[in-house]
Amino acid sequence: MNMPAVVPYTPETTTRTEVNKLAGATVVQFGTNWCGHCQRAEPLVQSAFEGHPGVRHLKVEDGSGRPLGRSFHIKLWPTLVFLRDGREVARVVRPTGAEEIVRALGEITASA
To answer: Which of 1, 14, 58, 68 is placed for a possible disulfide with 18 were both Cys, Cβ 3.0 to 4.6 Å?
Structure first.
């Protein structure tokens, strides 16, 4: 099975206020394109998202002084923040298996 092309992390173009206003299920993934931990986790993230095509997934390039990452208190990459209607419901830091990502996706996609 061919995995889809990896979507790169992009410089932040949204603010915390905008993220807080996002309706529905959203995952904000913080990391960088050159991070080895991020590269190793990418197949796990892609696999977990296969069953959740309706979840908004934002990959945000993080680093020192980046306001969005600091507002979420990001310390390690990759960190996936799972939001429902702009509120944090779960968080996965440096995933080692797709199961933990799938479990968190279930928390934000379950019926309210």
So the answer is: 14
- Which residue's entry shows tokens 């507002």? 71
DSSP secondary structure string, 58-73?
EEEE--TT-HHHHHTT
Over residues 11-68, the pLDDT tens digits come to 888 899 999 999 999 999 999 999 999 999 999 999 999 989 999 999 999 998 899 9
Domains and CATH numbers, the chain: 10-109 (3.40.30.10)
- What pTM does this model have? 0.93
Phi, psi of 44 (to 5 degrees): -65, -45
